[in-house]
Amino acid sequence: MENKEETFEYTYSAKQQQEIENIRKKYLPKEEDKMEQLRRLDRSATKKGTVVSIILGTVSALILGVGMCCTMVWSETLFIPGIIVGIIGIAGVAAAYPVYLSITRKEREKLAPQILKLTEELSKQQK
Questions:
Q1: Which domain holds residue 105?
Q2: Contact of 111 with 48, CB cutoff 8 Å
Q3: I want to staple 78 with a disulfide (CB 3.0 to 4.6 A). Which of 12, 25, 67, 70 is the partner?
């Protein structure tokens, strides 16, 4: 008599496998696929213009405030200089958006070859 016990054990947990995969992804070297690279390049085209225009607008608004303060608080001595300072502040605030557009246009022109190459590669993969 042969007493052969054949047993088969199998344990599978989808939740556990997903957790294992998530932990594994944290330790793998980060590979940037072409679509993610395209998104990153597109975001970088507007980032520089946004930062410069926000700084210009904020500083100009502060200058406008100083000019208003000169005309209202110290009107007997600084009324005319306050108007001049206020006009400079208004000009800076008004220039913030055109500066944004100009910088963004230049950045897009600089990034255009890379972005067009990536979009062409991605379009070929789709077909």
A1: 33-126
A2: no
A3: 70
Length of the chain equals 127
N-to-C CA span, the chain: 64
The secondary structure of residue 73, as a DSSP letter, is T
Domain count, the chain: 1
* Token pair recorded at residue 111: 């990034």
For 75, residues 6+ apart whose C-beta sits below 8 A from its C-beta are 82
pTM recorded for the entire structure: 0.69
**Domain membership flag for residue 82:** yes
Residue 49 lies in a domain: yes
Tens digits of residue pLDDT in 49-88: 999 999 999 999 999 999 999 999 998 999 999 999 999 9
